[in-house]
Amino acid sequence: MIGTAGISIADVDPHLLRTFLAVADTGSFSAAAERLRYTQSAVSQQIATLEADLGTSLFTRRPVAPTPAGERLRRHAALILVRLEAARADVARALAPPGRLVIGLTPLSWAAPVATAIATIRAESALLRTHVRVADRDKIVEAVAVGEHDLGLVDGFTAPNDPLRLPEPGAGGPRAVGVAESRAVVAVPRTHPLHGRSRVGLGDLADAYWIDAPEIAPFTRLPVDGLRASLRYDGCDATVLAGLVAAGHGLAVLPEPMVAAHDGLTGVPVDRLVHRVELLSLRADEDGPAARLSALLSAGT
């Protein structure tokens, strides 16, 4: 309980919690209104209602920042909303037709073992309806956490044998299991001065120009500071990113198999860096196609 009004968190309208988090995340009533597509006055009214319900002020106004009570609520609100969405998705799943499998994946997580595993379970069930949805890593983690996706496949670059640093959706969220790992390489055109190098350190490339592809391979997540972007690509098509590198618009760190498959590129291995794919599942012990796919991919590690 927060405050002295006798209202527990369980009694709070989830819509008010979503508005509260939007203000806390953006530090602005107007920015929260834009994110939620509300008017600023509506956001102000909802925060005032929440503060009245809980009997305490949740934000200072100039600047807009959570009060100590607001910080406490912030720690709980995100988890409450995640679990609420998971409950709704679980109920919806019970009402859905049998034989449905929804997989979320990041663009670079798709690889031959994934395609083979999906083909196997589809062959085992002629009635299985499979949906594949592509999104960035944070969205996939959230979608699996709330039950919108049965499974998720996410990727990133890390030190050998280290897990990915994924967002924490809270207790009871999805577990992650590594299912694939390959060498990370700097993708360069075949005419680039780096062509033919046996290895390279990212720190040696601080003066190079990079392509920032936040939906595919954000260079800001690489374990080095000072890299500069010469071009930003906001799409999800990995072949377009490879084409931009081949055309000389900048460098990108990519998994070695992807670079090897592109005629216009060469890959220079990066010191102590690998491309890792992890499988996310919320209920790995359930029967059905999700559990079967999880088992097939985990067995391939």
Automatic annotation (TrEMBL):
One of its GO terms (molecular function) is DNA-binding transcription factor activity. It comes from the Bacteria. Keywords: DNA-binding, Transcription, Transcription regulation. Residues 12-67 form the HTH lysR-type domain. PANTHER family: HTH-TYPE TRANSCRIPTIONAL REGULATOR (PTHR30126), HTH-TYPE TRANSCRIPTIONAL REGULATOR CYSL (PTHR30126:SF39). Belongs to the LysR transcriptional regulatory family. This is LysR family transcriptional regulator. It comes from Paractinoplanes tereljensis. The gene is gltC.
